[in-house]
Amino acid sequence: MKNIYLFADGAGEAVRTILVVYLILTFAFTLYSVLRMYFIEKMSNDVKGGKLRVKKLKADGRFTQIPVYSIEEMKADKKKNDVRLMYFPSDNPTSKRFVVILPGGGYAHLCTKQEGYPLAAALNRMGVNAFILEYRTGISCTAFGPMEDLGKALQLIEKNQEKWNITMEGYALMGFSAGGNLAGIFASHKFGYMDYQLPKPATIILGYPWTCVNDWLHHPYWNIWIGILGVWLSNRGSFHMFGLSHIRRGRELLDVQKYIEEDYPPTFMYSGSWDVLVPASRHADVFDSCLKKHNIKHIYEKHFGVPHGIGLGRHTKADGWLNRAVEFWYSNIQ
Predict the structure, then answer these.
(1) What is the pTM of this model?
(2) Which of 9, 190, 303, 311 is most buried by a 10 A CB count?
(3) Which residue range(s) make up the domain with 205?
């Protein structure tokens, strides 16, 4: 063994060298993956198009942005002050149905410019009315607060159906990353539509959703740095909702798979194989298996080489997913 150069200074030194090389190579790979993600994210998200749509609706006097809670409710709980609903009416709607878009951000912040405005603009071009909900995140987040925000927002939409020329019949929820977690739980029996006497969503549409407990022991990682990223992101969402003392219990409560029953809504989901923040193998793949187990009608697209946060997915292998998702939604309401 000593004749082998690697073990020239002993087995202990050899193990240390292997470990250092492993840490350096995996860190370099992780750094490359993250930088690649941000590059593709900038290319695939039509941020400019989303902003232009907002500008046009404002110029036409058709842009609606209103608080979800009443003045009295906001005075009683200041954490609800920033919960807002934005309405993006289509210029030529094909029906009165609508989609509620839930941007991601790990329950720490909201990626509205990337996963909100561009999606609403794209849906409008397809003749679909859209809403964007800015729900509670970060220090304003409380246990199942975002679910309450969505419930209240849908009740607000329900009260204004005639004013906005829409119908609650056949509506869909669209969530990205943590927004997918929110949509996934809200579509179930607990902490969702039933608590607010609302109709069940006709379809939920999920983009690279964070769906399950991301505990290190349950989901071992070959790359320690990606593992740290994954565990940190999962714990971050749990921390903001449930606090440090209940973070473990919070992870369990945010595990969407535990809420799936036989009457769960039809689901369209897409993710990428190169998602280092919310790995498909730990989230979307697990959710897909659960949907199959309960015989839920669904479509799952997993695109090779696609990272996290791509939104519309332009110029990636996921390009066109929104058209397919809308077609799937329509198939469930005809």
Answers:
(1) 0.92
(2) 311
(3) 5-331
